[in-house]
Amino acid sequence: EAALEGNTLGVAQDDQAALEWFTQAASNNFPPAMLALGTMHFNGRGVERDDVEAVRWYRRAAAAGDSDAQFNLGSMYYHGQGVEKLNYSDAFKWYRAAALRGHTGAQCSLGVMYERGRGVSASEDDAIEWYECAAEKGDALAQFNLGVILSSSEARGSDQRAVHWLALAAAQGLARSGNCLVDLHFADLHCSLSLFCPQLPTFLSACRLGLLALVLLLCTCPQTLVVQGTVCARSHAF
User: How many angstroms separate the CA atoms of 218 and 189, rounded?
Assistant: First the structure.
């Protein structure tokens, strides 16, 4: 690993040396080395890029219980890279394995699969549950997806929860989340404003150029925005 990245102990970056050491460790059934070899083949570091070989190493590490490898293998199946064909069922299998081990990215990915009904029957409740698992750990994409899905829920209090998660995602620099907060009920929807803040509509429009100001407003004075309806159109990244 030191040869792969270089470090402060005087080890120079050397992809070839890293490849040799990882190969030696992998031959002794060391899962992190198998994962590293898969990643090197996927990124083409020290070797020519080879998705099939990446999948082979990810699969070995995943079978040994490495959650990062399970997540990566799930992603390869989800995108149809290095495998015979795109396979949502296998993607779901490996994402779930990683998610149950606490892998944040896999938990968010499971939320996407449940919401979209890919590899599993669509379930908004299950999507929300997995998004929450990742969002509570600080995953910005999960916070965004959770905020968007809650904004369209009819459950009591879901709008306030949506604003909460969208604000957290925006605070981490996810611009789409900030845009959703600004757009919330301003396109063809309605927004009720408290009487003590009549300048809020103008302020929200200005926040398109300063999302941080909007986040601070929502976090410090959330009562100024009373939401009714749904938020902007969904836009997931994966």
Answer: 19
